[in-house]
Amino acid sequence: MEHILLRDLDIPDIWQFDTYMANGGYDGLKKAVADHTPDEVIQIVMDSNLRGRGGAGFPTGRKWSFIPKDAEIKYVTVNADESEPGTFKDRQLLEKNPHQVLEGSLITAYAIQATAVYIYCRGEFWDLAHELEVRIEEARAANLLGENILGTDWSCDVHIHLGAGAYICGEESALLNSLQGLLGQPRVRPPFPAQHGGGLYYQPTVVNNVETLANVPWILLNGAEAYRSIGTPESPGPKIFCMSGHVEKPGNYELPLGITFRELIYEHAGGIPNGKELKAILPSGASGPVLVATDEVLDSPLTYESVEALGSTLGSASFILMDEDTDMVWAAAKMNHFFKHESCGKCTPCREGTFWLDRVYERLLRGEGTARDLTILENVPRQMQGVTLCALGDFAANPVLSTVTQFRAEYERYIQSPEPAAASNMPDAAR
Amino acid sequence: MLAEKYADRIEKIFSKYPDKRSGIMDLLYLAQEEYGWLSEDTLREVAALCDVDPTQAHSIAGFYTMFSEKPKGTYWLQVCTDLPCALRGADQFYQELCAYLDVDDGGTTSDGLFTVEQVMCLAACDKAPMLQCNFHYYENLDMDIIKGLIEQWRAQAQQEAAE
Predict the structure, then answer these.
(1) Structural domains for chain B
(2) Which of A136, A420, B16, B100 is the least buried, fewest Cβ under 10 Å from its Cβ?
């Protein structure tokens, strides 16, 4: 099947403006502007049931519909702060098919009548972001962005903002703060970004992921019904699956939602190297619970609902695979260390929880763990769940809790010494 | 001073935003490019350009890993050792790289040429082991490849010193 998103796999130089234009480039934007009112565009995307590809899976058209019509200044912000361990799809889209992302952003901007688009690129995408500036100028020269786009009275500029190395800025309200030159920490909500007072410069703002926006031109050109014919009714459309870790053919795979874990891992990504057995799967990078690679899991379809029913989340579909030799305590320690480093420090449970969990993991891996450490690993993450301003507290709890409960025997192997006598006298709160 | 030397670039940065404060990250990059790192004086200079308190510039510089408030080696190597990269040998690669350059974790070589650090996920998990050198990516690495690159960087530094 021809790719809808990773079109560079079919047309290698699709990144070039002329090639993109020769292959239907910006036809979705032209159609939106010529044939549809902004509200009709929102309705088409709502009907397509496109769900946000950044991780949360929120219906995209609904998000756009929340923008108040009476607002004079409105913004579109493209979340290109791709930083979840195991995720590298937005990078391929922006490097290899950048005009499609720009086109999707502009259709979004038309739908909410935005005055400007800001693309928030993670700072490490340094080379990519500087290339993207050239792509923006190509589109400007063709009157596809800037003043009086395509001869209409709608004007909208596109700017790039570079982050500088902070996972938290992928969280939409932290991203907006970072763009405003404030510390990249989450905001209290409500107001949400779409509402008055909640968005960029406190104006109503749509924040969408790169991959989400890359779907939009196709939807405009082919219609909502055609889009819904791909994937499943609840999770329609193509999805990019990022495959990393112990996998024969690491990389990005664009496939319809609803294929099984087994098809993705063994048929498309070539299975596990060196004839090893697959032991564990992280379907959504470091931030979702780990799944034991049972037949039940492998035969389950990959949709937002079914992965949730298995006790994890599809998130941004960043698959980190681990073979039979992987030490799950080590893997959990790595992930917790990531969250400890990336916690922005605003909310106490996340800042302190990830810090102390990191100390416990260091102790375990040094062979100095006690039985009490297992209790800590079970208790502390539970006190980080549901009590922080953003989801990072919950994300950080997931790898710890899901490994302690499902790979308990591996943790027990690290516990050398018996529980210290003094611990039994400690008050419950200190345990 | 940045304001005189880079007047055009600074104006272009500010023209992107309705609020000068939004330009602070771009200006910190510009300052780091000019001076190599962000000193107290540099942070005050950038803060004044953006109309913010120097404390704000400090907090922004300290919050992000790509800004440095200490001098780094000419080649600033940041190796990703997060889980997906580590599953493909990044930890061992990092240790061997440190040993080859004779530096500790996060250290700088005695000639001031190389700083070697671990860094969090760089969205290149399928091409591990990988690193970022002065913000450019180098992927699918092994010790042979990195030794070749180090020789190139050494030669480049020598040439620049000679000029």
Answers:
(1) 2-63 (1.10.10.1590), 75-162 (3.40.30.10)
(2) A420
